[in-house]
Design a protein that fits this description.
Shape: elongated
Length: 73
C-alpha cells in the first residue's frame, strides 16, 4: 500500500500526507473486519472477499482519476 501511495504522491499534485497517516489504521480495521466475516463460514468469507474487491476497485478508480484524468503525465 505504501509503495502505491508513494507513486501517487510522486506523480500527482494532490496532498497525500493524510492518506499515509490513516493508511495503517484503515488496513488494520479492514483486516479485522475480513477476519470476523471469515469466522461466519463460507458465505462470510465470500462477503469479506467481495468487500475487499470492491474497496480495491474504488481505490484504483480514485488513483486513475487523480493521476490520469486530472493530472496529465
Amino acid at each position: 500500500m505504501g509503495v502505491v501511495l508513494l507513486f501517487v504522491a510522486a506523480v500527482s499534485p494532490i496532498e497525500v500526507r493524510y492518506i499515509y497517516a490513516l493508511g495503517f489504521a484503515i488496513a488494520v480495521a479492514g483486516a479485522r473486519g475480513c477476519s470476523r466475516l471469515s469466522e461466519l463460514g463460507p458465505f462470510g468469507k465470500a462477503a469479506g472477499w467481495g468487500l475487499l474487491a470492491c474497496q480495491a476497485w474504488a481505490a484504483l478508480q480514485g488513483i486513475h482519476e487523480i493521476v490520469i484524468s486530472r493530472y496529465r503525465l
